[in-house]
Amino acid sequence: MEEGEGMDLEQRLSDVNTYLSEGIHTVKGWCLPHLWQTLWPLYREIGDGPVAEIGLFEGKFFIGLCKTFGTSEKNRAAAIDVFDMQQFNLDGAGVGKMDVVKRNLGVHGIAEDAVEFVQADSLALTHRDADRLVREIGQFHFFSVDGCHEVVHTAKDIEFAMSVTANHGLIAVDDYTNPDWPGVQEAVARMYMLRDFNFIPLAVTCNKLLLCSYSFHSDRLAAIEEYVSSHYPTTRIKKVKRFGFQTLTLHPGHSVWSDIVK
Ligand SMILES: C[S@@+](CC[C@H](N)C(=O)[O-])C[C@H]1O[C@@H](n2cnc3c(N)ncnc32)[C@H](O)[C@@H]1O
After folding, report:
1. Ligand 1 atom with minimal separation from the 53 CA
2. Pocket-testing residue among 82, 102, 181, ligand 1, by greatest number of atoms within 8 A of Cβ
3. In what order do the strands lie in the sheet with 51-54?
4. What is the model's pLDDT at position 2?
5. pLDDT under 50 in the chain at which residues?
6. CATH domain 3-251 topology
7. Is pTM beyond 0.90 here?
8. Does the Cβ of 122 fall within 6 Å of ligand 1?
9. Is 208 in the pocket of ligand 1 (CB under 6 A)?
10. Vertex 138, ends 28 and 24: CA angle to 5°?
């Protein structure tokens, strides 16, 4: 690593840790800082690039993603939500508020021009929207699926994410282990039992299922296992197969958040 890159990484680490220990608690929503025990080694493998989320609520996870993957005017992000079209929020899990997300992004140092807001019912997104996003922003390095939890929405949103995420990128599916939203697990089960996809299950932690491309699967498993076992010895790592794929289940052992480390 070049000297400059090392210094940039120190700054990035410090910014992310500040958000995870302080900022995250000031933004309403659902996201645990311990998730970064797994996200940080994956970010180190994937590198800076565009991030996107379907289902922002007030931006709690999205801001953490922007901070991790270096969102800026030159490295833009996409925020997709029904926002003011709440008639399409069929499960009412949370009401996405564009003005609050914009305010929260500003408070946490993300320039408004760095984020493209897409107000849409995710079921209405087509390959033309996917092409436009990739043309204008680029292929995503990280895509978070956290919109409506019904089976139809979850499956459609994951497939949309797969169509715009770079082959070396990552997709997160929220509420995979939340018994209040069984539609998420049902959608994932239907998908992998019926068809083959290039993105396959990688890990489950902090309520999220992470997917990565088959091409990078064994490298990503190794990166997570090595980083978590050497830095967080109280986090329990279980190797388990999901739909025939080797995956990891990670149970962070810290009841109180402690920083991510290099
Ligand atoms: C559980 S909240 C998201 C939580 C958020 N990711 C966080 O970090 O706290 C669900 C979000 O999905 C949005 N949503 C619901 N139905 C949707 C749909 N059909 N298309 C797009 N977004 C939708 C809601 O407006 C809400 O903002």
Report:
1. 6
2. 82
3. 115-119, 77-81, 51-54, 140-145, 165-174, 208-213, 199-205, 245-251, 236-242
4. 43
5. 1-4
6. Rossmann fold (3.40.50)
7. yes
8. yes
9. no
10. 15
